[in-house]
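Reviewer 2 asked us to include a model.

Predict the structure of this chain.
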Amino acid sequence: MESKLVECFGVEPKKVGEHLQITYGALKVLDVSTGKDQKTLVVDTRSDSSVSDEVILDTNRRFRRYLDEVTGYSTKDRVKKAKSVEPE
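Predicted model (structure tokens):
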């Protein structure tokens, strides 16, 4: 997870307990951790809507790439998988 954050966003994440956090572009905070079974990825974001459209588009592109890289699933695959999982 950590190396993929650096690869996709170009910033070093801060470790907060079991979580990794970064601030980048339109993301005030991107918080990433693994689920209880260590087989799921838990992602929490807080956005900065005051940034330009160009920054938002760049951030979204990098965020989607990060999720693709770290999960091994495309956006379409992740949506399908998320619909089939019971909430914790």
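The beta strands are 14-16, 19-24, 27-34, 41-47. The mean pLDDT is 92. We have added this to the supplementary material.
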